[in-house]
Amino acid sequence: MEKVTHLLNITKFLSKHKNPEANELRNYYVKCCKELTSDGELPKQIFGINTMCSHCGSLWNTVDYKVRLIQGKPIPNSVKKLIKNSVNDIQLSACQKKLVRKSLKNRLNKLIIICSVCKKKNFVTLNKPERLKISKREVVTDITPKRKKKRIKDKTAGLLINTPNVKDCQGAEITKINTDTPRLLNPKGKQRKSNNINVSGSKPKKINISKLKGIINTSTAPSKRSSLHNFLTELG
Fold this sequence. Notes:
Pfam families: Rmp24-like (PF15719). 48% of the residues lie in helices and 8% in strands. The chain is mainly α.
């Protein structure tokens, strides 16, 4: 382990230099570290895929590289049923377990980094965030829709009409209100006057009726003057 720690310190020192010769020497020490620690694991901060190539050990900061993204495949319904069965403590066959692992692995997005030195591919798995399922009950519409104002058609559009003054309009409205208000048919004052007139005018009506009867009788009575002889006798 002392050799490994010494080589790690050398690689850290060489990583500061950006010369191609220093990069080749550093890659050689990285390979030596991997051979010495075949059973153990190297620190990911220094030897991880995010910092250096997993095959040749060249740093991404010092080397040109190409990046490509592969989209993950959705899990089929048949595999979803198998996952539910495994959760419910139902035993799966070896082939089914392998299929579940493969589908879960392919579900994730993959970032491919192609090194320009060794021209090999480095795969980096990226966790794909799941979509949030929003229930209909949680959706609340706080925004009230605005009501559209009804357009009133102007009947006098395009016509030249002498508009009356405001005072005249107000006076006309007052007169309309007075005419529209209901009136009492028999007020108390008028009832008293009408009663007095009827009492005083009852006698002359009777007198006039008697005169009319006399006139009618005189007009309807037959005349006794049948001849001239009778007329002369009446005169003599």
